[in-house]
Amino acid sequence: MKHIEVFGTEKLARLRKVILHKPQQSLNLVNPANYQECLFNFVPDIFQYQLEHDRYADLLRSQGIEVLNLQDYVQKNRTLMDSLPNLPYLNDTCLITSQGAILSKMCPGSRAGEEKVVGEALENLGIPIFHAFEGEDQFEGCLAISPEILFLADTERHAQKTLEEFFNKALHLFSQIIYAEIPQERRYMHPDMIFGRISESLALAYLPAFLKTYLITEKQRTEINIRDYLAHREMELIDISDQEQQLWGCSFVSVDANILIHYDIALNLRTQNELSRRGVEMIPFHPEALLAGGGSLRCLTLRVWRDSNL
């Protein structure tokens, strides 16, 4: 398999390459008796789910983004792939930086083992692993606020011990970590459910979920007010409502700074107007069948490379 030459997404620039996974056999495992255990909101209409997934992939391509199919880079773990109904939600499995990937360790249950499939794909693509969680670790995702700042949250899908042990390693890659203690509820199950960067100077956030927030560096851990701290770094936070948060308001795909692809149900008119006034372009996508899995378009998208990440 041909290795890709460049990768990394921590610097927010034009998105050029992503990995998607259009499910085949795995969605057949979700039924009326187990859909909640599988972390689905309802039993998916498989045909319509696949059609919507194709429509989303076509939308990405229309924006000049190369779409790689996960199954094209997996051989050893093909059988495992067919047993993982949540595997389409690739964002939770990995953050790809210009220094390598931070590979998650998915929690016990229907998502256990996803990292093995994704890890094989990364190996076959020639993307090195900066850090892979293992053993009893539980870690389902993080996000880059900038090339200097990593955002971590103690969601219900992260073990506190795992996070604490990762801080020092993460500081070899990012000079600062913003770490939030948040409610242990499914609606906040991954960090992108409460924070989403739009540009170097703008982000959406649901601040009621930030119970306590800390700035962690090699020298200290200090409690901060995230709005004030980011304001000092010239990043404005736009607040979203309770309803917007539950409709994945913070979780979107940035095509470039100030250009995002988002569910058309996610943000209310007020927030859309706030974004428009700041020059943000939102490319809408209407979901129906995709909502079965309880994830956003960002969740479905493993971003591989943005311009300027070398």
From TrEMBL:
It comes from the Bacteria. GO terms for biological process: L-arginine deiminase pathway. One of its GO terms (molecular function) is arginine deiminase activity. This is Arginine deiminase.
